[in-house]
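Request from the bench team (R.T.):
"We need a structural guess for the complex before ordering more zinc ion. Sequence and SMILES attached. Just send the tokens back."

Command: build protein-zinc ion structure.
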Amino acid sequence: MDDARPLPQLPAELLRACYAEAVRCYPSEACGLLLGPADRPVCDEVRLCQNQQDRLHAQDPVAYPRTSRTAYSLPAHEVLFLERSLGSERPVKIVFHSHIDVGAYFSDEDRRAATWQGEPLYPVDHLVLDAGPEGVRGARLYRFRDGDFVEVARYDAEGARCEP
Ligand SMILES: [Zn+2]
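Reply to R.T.: structure attached below.
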């Protein structure tokens, strides 16, 4: 991954749209894509996706032991959208999903889903939302650096950037 990519700015209203989706999906994990212009370090569009995890789990609970409460899976056509966007004028820059009652950490499952043989699948960052019964408490942005995903930004319950 090109580690020189500037950190994309996330307008608070964009984050709040993600938060609203997480509240709507609770207690299932919400997921989606954030995109923006290739020539400016900002995201200005949310693409909400339907979490496929429950469907996969119902079809094959051995291969997919987790339900949507503890995992997310993007639909195949959204993965295709992501891949096709990468060389375009409006690339996907961030994949987001929510965590249910466990905090916005980057889990081993998240690592597994975002990497292949130790390398990130796509040149995107990952935003994890901390969803609870009272709403979304905040979010954290993770980027792959030196072999692992590390936190690079944190956002409060209003969608504003804040200090860790
Ligand atoms: Zn996760």
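Two things stood out. The first strand starts at residue 31 and ends at 35. The CA atoms of residues 111 and 149 lie 8 Å apart.
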